Amino acid sequence: AQSVTQLGSHVSVSEGALVLLRCNYSSSVPPYLFWYVQYPNQGLQLLLKYTTGATLVKGINGFEAEFKKSETSFHLTKPSAHMSDAAEYFCAVSDEPGGATNKLIFGTGTLLAVQP
Amino acid sequence: NAGVTQTPKFRVLKTGQSMTLLCAQDMNHEYMYWYRQDPGMGLRLIHYSVGEGTTAKGEVPDGYNVSRLKKQNFLLGLESAAPSQTSVYFCASTRAGRRDEQYFGPGTRLTVT
């Protein structure tokens, strides 16, 4: 069965430092992968997604992620953290060819704190 | 476009009471979903629907019922609320047949005492 593992439920970085949030997945078919961000008391919004093609994906707010099939990973990075990046981040996988239901499997989330 | 909206935003129920959460989307999406979010557990799928008049169970369906009478609306019902159903509930929608991202509503925070 497909699954998503996010290592580190809490990550703290200093403003201006590199952000690295880890995501590993298991999938029986070529996966589609997503990163969502959730700001306090809000719904989830899409940061970026990988479908096919280029393995380095750029998203909103300066975030990017690289799909590494050999490592079954899709880690999220941002070169320089900003205070406004403080939020919870969720990795998700869709491994359902044809999109019969478009169900997503979510990781348990990583709460990012940014220290001044 | 309002996207995905949810009503109410907050609700407090006593054990045994019933309620219905409403999700509406104006994007003409075929597929809709109900999730619950609990600390440290991510989002877990309760029920979903791939079209008007059809629903299916997700990962944690017990204690919930759903209906999709209109394409744009997806209702989540709790017939007899329990404290274990205290959670934040999110609705989402997406297009059919494509492995697209899901679009989320702002959530409903439910407390059962």
The fraction of residues assigned to DSSP E strands of chain A is over 45%
Number of helices of chain B: 0
Give the termini distance of chain B in whole angstroms.
36 Å
- Which pair of protein chains has the largest interface, and what are the residue counts? A-B, 26 and 28 residues
Distance separating the two termini of chain A: 41 Å
Task: State the helical fraction of chain B.
Answer: under 10%
Q: What's the story with the biggest beta sheet of chain A?
A: 6 strands, mixed
What's the story with the biggest beta sheet of chain B?
Answer: 7 strands, mixed
What average pLDDT do the residues of chain A reach?
Answer: 93
Helices and strands of chain A, in N-to-C order?
Answer: EEEEEEEEEEEE
Structural class of chain B: mainly beta
- What is the string of SSEs of chain B from the N terminus onward? EEEEEEEEEEE
Q: What is the rounded Rg of chain B?
A: 13 Å
Could you describe the 3D structure shown?
Chain A has no helices and twelve strands. Chain A has strands at about 5, 10-15, 20, 25, 30-40, 45-50, 55-60, 65-70, 75-80, 85-95, 105, 110-115. In chain A, the strands form three sheets. In chain A, strands 2, 5, 6, 10, 11 and 12 form a six-stranded mixed beta sheet that branches. Chain A has a four-stranded antiparallel beta sheet with strand order 3-9-8-7, with no helix packed on it. In chain A, strand 7 (about 55-60) and strand 8 (about 65-70) form a beta hairpin. Chain A is globular. Chain B is built from no helices and eleven strands. Chain B has strands at about 5, 10-15, 20-25, 30-35, 45-50, 55, 65, 75-80, 85-95, 105, 110. Chain B starts with a strand and ends with a strand. The interface of A and B includes residues 43, 49, 96 and 106 of A.
